[in-house]
Amino acid sequence: MSANRWFATGNFYTTYREEQRIFVTHLDRLFFSLLLIGLFAWPLLVPTSNRNMLVINNILIAVVAVYGLNLVTGFAGLISIGHAAFVGIGAYTLAGTAGAIGESHVLITHAWPLMILASGCMGAAFGAFVGLPAMRLKHLYLAIATLSFQMIFSWTINFMTFFNQGQMIPVGRVFWINGPVGRNEHYLFWYYVILVTAVACGLGVRNLLRTRYGRCLVAVRDNDRAADAMGMHPGLTKVYAFALAGFFAGIAGALHTYMFRGAGFESFTLHHSIIYLAMAIVGGLGTLPGSLLGPVAIQILELQMEHLSEWAGALLPANMNLATAMRPLGFGLVIVLFLMFEPRGIANWWRICRTYLKLWPFRY
Amino acid sequence: MSYFFQLMVSGIVVGSIYALSALGFVLIYKSSRVLNIAHGQIIAGGAFIVFALTVWVGIPIVLSFLASLVITFFLAMSVERIFLRRLIGEPIISVIMVTIGLMSILDGVIYLTPFGSMNYSFPEFLPTTPLSLGGVSISWTQLVGVVITAILIGAFSWFFKSATLGISMRAVSDDQLASMSVGISVPRVFGLAWALAGLSAAGAGAIIGNITGLNYETLRAFGIAVFPVVILGGLDSIIGAVVAGIIMGLIQQFAAGYVDGNWGLNGTADVLPYVILLVILLFKPHGLFGTHEIERV
């Protein structure tokens, strides 16, 4: 590789190892470090209301969940219309435990990192189970399997007394080194926890994709027969992709439960599965930056839509019911328009900028 | 014993509605391999058009039923033309996601109308006293529903068996390249498949609306409820959709009649189809009548 590791004006890879580096140039590394420092430092510099913090935490939780969805739908090419159910599995693993042993049990309040991990593992187990038809079937049937899992999940939560029939199950406040996390620091504390989780998961996914297990997913997506011929097991790979998706979803669910201090049925419906899909598509399927950009874009869209429907609701007759109509209409339009005109998502714009800058000022 | 027969009759009624709903779904899948997730919205739309024409415009209900079939025919055709035509040849994953987006859009459009939040019911046009046959009662709305379903399914099977267009649709689902070479316009067949699916969905919607009343959530749920039916029957089999629809209706009614309330279980009719779906996917993925493709996994 050329000596200049700050401004590489092209690809100079001579080994596969070089191509698989996480940061191609020092500039990338610098950008990433600055981004991280910024993310960690800004809450200390800018005072933020709890309401805004809640929105930001929601985005970050969605980022963790979308990592999983992007792995299974983007990288492994299997449509999952039940991702919110996997998030729900994570949330209800935690909430169910809290309901069974008491919401302020030491396991819930002190061993919360362990609980989050356990929720992830539970999500992975369910993911693998739902992915089992993948041993024999192609993605069409898998989409239906995940959809039916979503329905079964909703029914289980709504009808089982153990899950409080879909009503809120409370979870106690957690402890940090200096005692319980109070009401005022709650959102700030969870911002940091979720941020660390999101960064760790992101690095995990990035590294996974450099290993043979990650490349295996992409190979099976692109051509499962060829992958089979090269010694991979397509069926097992698909099950494993579902398990991974379930893992990230489970973690996101546990974080969701801790942040809202409880789990209720209404956060894990089919509608939410579709929102997760919209996030993955808008961000860019099969790209890592897409998992970050998608949730941000959709959340901003949702907030704007709220403003718009408030503004328009005042002008139109009351029975037009605009507020309920705007959300599905907006999501649907965004999904369809992105699929028709920019199937590679926002991440593609980012990629175009990078390629442009790479050769700048020497364009073709 | 009459309880058993009563459950059986209502099972057949529900099942025949399932059959009609699943029919449209299978039509689209069979011709273009698209999984139409927005089917429930089209069903609801058909029912609402009948209501709007009957009550707000004032056309007799039989005429507005027929008009609704025609309107949905063209609506579904234009949906195919606008959204799906340009996706021919794209990976199947993006086509399915477009139908998911479509579902969301149609949701939004229906929420804009009064139907999104209000409950309506069709004006009474049938005798309200139920028919009674040896202790088993069946209401006129149910009876008419079953009869209309039977007529529509019969018309469809005649169409696919004998009409030139129907035969060309079967040809396309069998082999697109070969049917193109004998002069069949494949995109036109896709459009026609969507149109016919819209037509049958509108029929199903009107019948459901007549039996249960016009509630958007109930009508929309039929779009998801067809999935267990089509998986049981085989995704690409029309006869499978009919048989599996009736089986599924019977299973649901018997579950509601005999399981609910026992062993602490409630609402099993809502979940049982999906459990059956997962089991079928694991053990007999092509359903009862579906084509056994040579799977490549």
Explain what the structure shows.
The complex is a heterodimer of chains A (364) and B (297). With 364 residues, chain A is mainly α. Chain A has helices at 16-19, 26-45, 50-75, 83-101, 106-109, 112-130, 139-159, 186-210, 212-222, 224-229, 234-260, 270-283, 288-315, 322-341, 346-359, and strands at residues 169-170, 175-176, 179-180, 262-263. Chain A is 71% helix and 2% strand. In chain A, the strands form two sheets. Chain A has a two-stranded antiparallel sheet with strand order 1-4. In chain A, helix 3 packs across helix 13 (288-315) and helix 4 (83-101) packs across helix 11 (234-260). Chain A starts with 15 loop residues before the first helix and ends in a 5-residue tail after the last helix. By secondary structure, chain B is mainly α. Chain B has one domain (2-122, 135-283): ABC transporter involved in vitamin B12 uptake, BtuC. Chains A and B meet through helix 7, helix 11, helix 12 and helix 14 of A and helix 4, helix 9 and helix 11 of B.
The CATH class of chain B, by name, is Mainly Alpha
- Compressed to H and E, one letter per element, the order of chain B equals HHHHEEHHHHHHH
The fraction of residues assigned to DSSP E strands of chain B is under 5%
Relative helix content of chain B: over 70%
In total, the number of domains of chain B comes to: 1
Strand order of the largest sheet of chain B: 1-2
Number of self-contained structural domains of chain A:
1
Q: Give Rg of chain A in angstroms.
A: 21 Å
Helices of chain A, by number, come to: 15
Query: The biggest beta sheet of chain A, please?
Result: 2 strands, antiparallel
| CATH architecture designation of chain B | Orthogonal Bundle
Strand order of the largest sheet of chain A: 1-4
Count of runs of 4 or more consecutive helical residues of chain B: 11
Distance between the termini of chain A: 22 Å
Structural class of chain A: mainly alpha
**Between the first and last Cα atoms of chain B, what is the distance in angstroms?**
48 Å
Which word captures the global form of chain A? globular
Spatial extent as radius of gyration of chain B: 19 Å
- Tell how many strands the DSSP assignment of chain A holds: 4
